[in-house]
Amino acid sequence: MSIDTITNKGRPAEILLVEDNHGDVLLTKKAFKNGKVANNITVAANGIEALQALRHEGKFASTPTPDIVLLDLNLPQKSGRDVLAEIKADENLKHIPVVVLTSSKAELDVVKSYNLHANSYIVKPVNLEKFAEIVQTIENFWFHIVVLSNDETKNG
Predict the structure, then answer these.
(1) What local confidence, expressed as pLDDT, does residue 1 receive?
(2) 68 three-state secondary structure
(3) Dist. CA 133–CA 122, nearest whole Å
(4) CA–CA distance from 133 to each of 69, 128, 138, 148 (Å)?
(5) How far is CA 78 from CA 2, 30, 120, in A?
(6) Angle CA 138–15–29, to nearest 5
């Protein structure tokens, strides 16, 4: 079992971005492109697509298991809260860190997200520069510092 960080594994970080706002998708991709860690970003535009990507279904059949999920709460078809609940209730998915990345500052959303076992909760800033800083912080923490479990060892 390897206990290396993503940086030390010598492969790109796999990111599932669950976001319905095209502008936020572009900002996030640009911010990660300017980062120090090679990455592949898969975008799911709603909650149903997010679960399909995580379960390798439909158009996401060949999508790799993500190292991290960046999840917006306000999504069409299936809310981010519902997606988070399903991820953390699924034995095959619950090991994947979920970072809620949303515009909601509501205390109730924060509490509910942590009660559903979100790994962190980040409010998207409206300032472009601050958004880039947040993405850099996510990259530094989750890919340089945190040791993530391997997909093949998730149940044991």
Answers:
(1) 46
(2) strand
(3) 12
(4) 18, 9, 9, 22
(5) 35, 26, 20
(6) 75
> Residue ranges per domain, the chain?
6-151
Give the type of residue at 13.
Answer: A
pLDDT at 37 over 90: no
List Cβ neighbours of 114 (8 Å cut-off, separation of 6 or more): 121
Q: How far apart are CA 135 and CA 145, in angstroms?
A: 15
CATH number for the domain running over 6-151: 3.40.50.2300
pLDDT exceeding 90 applies to what percent of the chain? 74
Q: Say if residues 37 and 148 touch (Cβ distance below 8 Å).
A: no
147 pLDDT band, cuts 50/70/90, is confident
User: What is the amino acid identity at position 18?
Assistant: V
Return d(Cα 74, Cα 54) in angstroms, integer: 19
